[in-house]
């Protein structure tokens, strides 16, 4: 990768994205090994700087860094000097003094990781782990990686021409934005399905299709990705009732039966079972939701490895026993 930071899925060229996905494929094999660590980033320090709660993403980045033998510092805004009024700049200077090589940032304000990366406060690589309602690029990468494993499993195949439906609260979803950008770069056709009130202004500039009719879209899709309704970000009524939303935009067994045989069901989590997706669909054979979590560790390992100057191949030629002796 030519960039020092990963701030937006839109910053990735197709070559960048495919390098991350191919590196993740190498690293994914570690999940099946008895020894799951590599010495690739020994001596490097990764800081998880989280201003918002996110158990899944933080633990995934922590596991990724530790499997590459990096030192990890988990920094929560709650109970820290940030809760006492310390600025993002002062926090960045503190991390710089600690010798952080990479900072993984999740922030409630859209654009905060960009400020950290470009204000000149720190020389660390910055990875956006979710900023406001803006973006979540590593989630999009792990989603694309999961799709390729199921829809393009043979080496050299791509997502070109694959149809992906992203359904639900697009307005408040950073995952939807990053996926729309990345999947277009990788050649997929994306349709956003939501009530008019949950489609953002300017969505017509995203280069994707939109629809209000889930039943019309599902039979033609290769992937259906359900989004959580983010009621904590809503300050108004965006739909009449939960029952009405589920009736029109929820994925249940009846709707799942209209999918093609090879189609897969995804969800970035956390799920609201019974609202946007029923339990039987979430736990069905078409669902790859649990696999997304496993794949997330491999993809984040790839991002850390490539941003911090790792040389290919990602996995050393030594045996697992030799690698364990290096730890």
TrEMBL record:
<dbReference type="InterPro" id="IPR006132">
    <property type="entry name" value="Asp/Orn_carbamoyltranf_P-bd"/>
</dbReference>
<dbReference type="InterPro" id="IPR006130">
    <property type="entry name" value="Asp/Orn_carbamoylTrfase"/>
</dbReference>
<feature type="domain" description="Aspartate/ornithine carbamoyltransferase carbamoyl-P binding">
    <location>
        <begin position="4"/>
        <end position="148"/>
    </location>
</feature>
<dbReference type="GO" id="GO:0004070">
    <property type="term" value="F:aspartate carbamoyltransferase activity"/>
</dbReference>
<feature type="domain" description="Aspartate/ornithine carbamoyltransferase Asp/Orn-binding">
    <location>
        <begin position="161"/>
        <end position="307"/>
    </location>
</feature>
<comment type="pathway">
    <text>Pyrimidine metabolism; UMP biosynthesis via de novo pathway; (S)-dihydroorotate from bicarbonate: step 2/3.</text>
</comment>
<feature type="binding site">
    <location>
        <position position="139"/>
    </location>
    <ligand>
        <name>carbamoyl phosphate</name>
    </ligand>
</feature>
<dbReference type="GO" id="GO:0044205">
    <property type="term" value="P:'de novo' UMP biosynthetic process"/>
</dbReference>
<dbReference type="GO" id="GO:0006207">
    <property type="term" value="P:'de novo' pyrimidine nucleobase biosynthetic process"/>
</dbReference>
<dbReference type="InterPro" id="IPR002082">
    <property type="entry name" value="Asp_carbamoyltransf"/>
</dbReference>
<keyword id="KW-0665">Pyrimidine biosynthesis</keyword>
<feature type="binding site">
    <location>
        <position position="270"/>
    </location>
    <ligand>
        <name>carbamoyl phosphate</name>
    </ligand>
</feature>
<feature type="binding site">
    <location>
        <position position="57"/>
    </location>
    <ligand>
        <name>carbamoyl phosphate</name>
    </ligand>
</feature>
<feature type="binding site">
    <location>
        <position position="136"/>
    </location>
    <ligand>
        <name>carbamoyl phosphate</name>
    </ligand>
</feature>
<dbReference type="InterPro" id="IPR036901">
    <property type="entry name" value="Asp/Orn_carbamoylTrfase_sf"/>
</dbReference>
<feature type="binding site">
    <location>
        <position position="56"/>
    </location>
    <ligand>
        <name>carbamoyl phosphate</name>
    </ligand>
</feature>
<comment type="subunit">
    <text>Heterododecamer (2C3:3R2) of six catalytic PyrB chains organized as two trimers (C3), and six regulatory PyrI chains organized as three dimers (R2).</text>
</comment>
<feature type="binding site">
    <location>
        <position position="269"/>
    </location>
    <ligand>
        <name>carbamoyl phosphate</name>
    </ligand>
</feature>
<feature type="binding site">
    <location>
        <position position="84"/>
    </location>
    <ligand>
        <name>L-aspartate</name>
    </ligand>
</feature>
<dbReference type="InterPro" id="IPR006131">
    <property type="entry name" value="Asp_carbamoyltransf_Asp/Orn-bd"/>
</dbReference>
<feature type="binding site">
    <location>
        <position position="106"/>
    </location>
    <ligand>
        <name>carbamoyl phosphate</name>
    </ligand>
</feature>
<dbReference type="Pfam" id="PF00185">
    <property type="entry name" value="OTCace"/>
</dbReference>
<dbReference type="Pfam" id="PF02729">
    <property type="entry name" value="OTCace_N"/>
</dbReference>
<feature type="binding site">
    <location>
        <position position="228"/>
    </location>
    <ligand>
        <name>L-aspartate</name>
    </ligand>
</feature>
<dbReference type="GO" id="GO:0006520">
    <property type="term" value="P:amino acid metabolic process"/>
</dbReference>
<feature type="binding site">
    <location>
        <position position="174"/>
    </location>
    <ligand>
        <name>L-aspartate</name>
    </ligand>
</feature>
<dbReference type="GO" id="GO:0016597">
    <property type="term" value="F:amino acid binding"/>
</dbReference>
<keyword id="KW-0808">Transferase</keyword>
<comment type="similarity">
    <text>Belongs to the aspartate/ornithine carbamoyltransferase superfamily. ATCase family.</text>
</comment>
<comment type="function">
    <text>Catalyzes the condensation of carbamoyl phosphate and aspartate to form carbamoyl aspartate and inorganic phosphate, the committed step in the de novo pyrimidine nucleotide biosynthesis pathway.</text>
</comment>
<protein>
    <recommendedName>
        <fullName>Aspartate carbamoyltransferase</fullName>
        <ecNumber>2.1.3.2</ecNumber>
    </recommendedName>
</protein>
<dbReference type="GO" id="GO:0005829">
    <property type="term" value="C:cytosol"/>
</dbReference>
């Amino acid at each position: 990768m030519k960039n020092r930071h990963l701030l937006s899925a839109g910053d990735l060229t197709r070559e960048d994205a495919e390098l991350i996905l191919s590196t993740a494929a190498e690293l994914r094999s570690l999940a099946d090994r008895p020894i799951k660590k590599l010495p690739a980033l020994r001596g490097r320090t990764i800081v998880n700087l989280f201003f918002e709660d996110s158990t899944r993403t933080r633990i995934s980045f922590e596991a990724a860094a530790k499997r590459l033998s990096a030192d990890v510092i988990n920094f929560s805004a709650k109970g820290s000097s940030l809760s006492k009024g310390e600025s993002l700049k002062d926090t960045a200077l503190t991390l710089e003094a600690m010798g952080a090589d990479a900072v993984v940032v999740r922030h409630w304000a859209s654009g905060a990781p960009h400020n950290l990366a470009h204000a000149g406060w720190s020389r660390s690589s910055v990875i956006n782990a979710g900023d406001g309602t803006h973006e979540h690029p590593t989630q999009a990468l792990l989603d694309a990686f999961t799709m390729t494993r199921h829809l393009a499993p043979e080496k050299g195949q791509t997502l070109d021409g694959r149809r992906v439906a992203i359904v639900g609260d697009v307005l408040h979803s950073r995952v939807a934005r990053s996926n729309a950008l990345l999947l277009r770069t990788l050649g997929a056709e994306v349709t956003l399905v939501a009530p008019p009130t949950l489609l953002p202004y300017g969505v017509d500039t995203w280069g994707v299709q939109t629809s209000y009719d889930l039943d019309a879209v599902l039979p033609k899709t290769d992937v259906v990705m359900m989004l959580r309704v983010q009621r904590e970000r809503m300050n108004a009524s965006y739909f009449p009732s939960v029952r009405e939303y589920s009736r029109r935009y929820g994925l249940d067994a009846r709707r799942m039966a209209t999918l093609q045989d090879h189609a897969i069901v995804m969800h970035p989590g956390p799920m609201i079972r019974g609202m946007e997706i029923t339990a039987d669909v979430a736990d069905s054979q078409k669902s790859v939701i649990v696999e997304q979590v496993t794949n997330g560790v491999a993809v984040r390992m790839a991002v850390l490895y490539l941003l911090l100057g790792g040389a290919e191949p990602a996995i050393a030629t030594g045996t697992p026993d030799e690698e364990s002796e290096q730890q």
